[in-house]
Amino acid sequence: MTTYPIIIYISRTNHKDSEERPHSQIEPSVIEAPDVDKNQRQILTWSLAAVAFYGLISGVVWNMFPVYSVIIGFSKTVTGLFSTIANVMSILLFLVIGRLSERLTKLKLCILGAAFCVAVIIVPLTKDFIPIAFSIAMVGLGTAIIVPTSRAAVLELSSAKRGSYIGIYESIATGGMSAGSFLGGALAGYVALEAPYYFSAIMAVAVILLLTYFVRRRSGGNQHANESQTHANRRTN
Fold this sequence. Notes:
CATH architecture: Up-down Bundle
CATH superfamily: MFS general substrate transporter like domains
CATH class: Mainly Alpha
Strand content: under 5%
């Protein structure tokens, strides 16, 4: 008879402890905190990939195109007009990029920007004003999408590392422009005058494939996480 009250006391104590302890201590294998650092690394990776592409495109296309335009027969005035067209298209897009970001994720917007940049392939295929102007306008739209979108993605990272991430972002962008300028000049001088534009189109397709891979990977990861969370909720209920 002396064991009965002891058993009751232990049972009540354990029941009280189970009510006071959070679920994360009772079943640590079921409910886990999200891996914030891993998510930030993924965002930083595709943001830097996008801005590196922007830097290369800017170096290869924008820095080399004025020379190419004059060589194929356009006047200096028309060459300046090409640049104006690209800048005007960028300005117009900046006004609506916020609305686009509400409908599409930033990663998908960068894919859209790279898709616009594929139009650079038109430049070496013609010497007419309208097709080249269209091509330059599309590239202007593409780079105008990529820059603010990738920058906004970096700014959404944790405030503790935001300054370092922005520094890396700007370094990659500037480095891409420098490398693109040298590469564009080397391709035009040692391969062919049209080679920089073929190279830029290939780079745009490569970026589209890379970012599409990230989209599918993140979608699959989010779906798996949602399924795990749903399963965990069912078990706890």
